[in-house]
Amino acid sequence: MSMITERPVRKRGPGGAKRAPGVENRRDRAAVLRGYLALTKPAIVELLLVTTVPTMMLAAGGWPNWVTFAVVLIGGALAGGAASALNCYIDRDIDQLMRRTKRRPLPAHEITPRAVLIFGLTLAVISVVLMAVFTNWLATALTAASIFYYDVIYTMWLKRRTPANTFWGGVCGAAPVIIGWAAVTGTISAMGWALFAVVFFWQMPHFYALAIKYKDDYARAGIPMLPVVRSMNRVNFEIVLYTVLTLAASFVAWPLGLGPIYGVTAIVMGLAFLAEAVRLAYVTRAGAPVNPMRLFHLSITYLTVVFMAVAVDALI
Known about the structure:
Helix content: over 70%
Low-confidence stretches: 1-17
Oligomer: single chain
Radius of gyration: 21 Å
Structural class: mainly alpha
Largest sheet: none
Number of helices: 13
Distance between the termini: 53 Å
């Protein structure tokens, strides 16, 4: 792992405008706070909570205990932020090589690696302690395991060594679903595993679309993402395959305790998701310009709407 060189200090020219020290200090503090927030990757945390809240509602048969609800939301957000911050610390060498990530706080030299490491570990400890004090051993163990899996198994090992990294990394991406279920019930039922499978399989078409868009970035950084090391025919095959498996998992969840609102939503959104995956494969095979971000954005809409339907069915 190569070290990041410090950003050269820019000297102000003799005629340059000077700001008052107080203004500079406020601007610096605000920049640092924004940097720490960026390390937690709020968009990812938000998406995790979109799946966790409806799952908890379904597990409870309505609104769960408010203490458990609040702790899982806060603890889950902190755990996701911890995993993301530690991911940024570990990947700081390759992040500076990729256009998509070179403006993150570490490649941009806004925060030191040591500070990021301390920040990530602190968030991890707080999240696990919160879960241990206010939920149960199973939810706590799953929270700790998901942080470890994402940063040690996925980021440090799988991501840099195998094109199957997205598949195996999907375990920690879907973990919040079973963490939420376990926090409410103390166990994981067939329904919990079915919803886990929906999120697990969903991650492949979702992230492969992004990896197609940033294929050159990953190649430059030496990361063997599937679009870098396999043909587009193979990538499109896996996108369609895992989209079908996502739909299958969502249909399996229906008879396990969900109603018609969920069922109709899963069918309609699933068919739209599959149609876009097939369209991407067809356009690629025809040699036309490809816009994989259409599938990427639709995948987010799919997951959000389907889990909103889970929440609605849990309340009626």
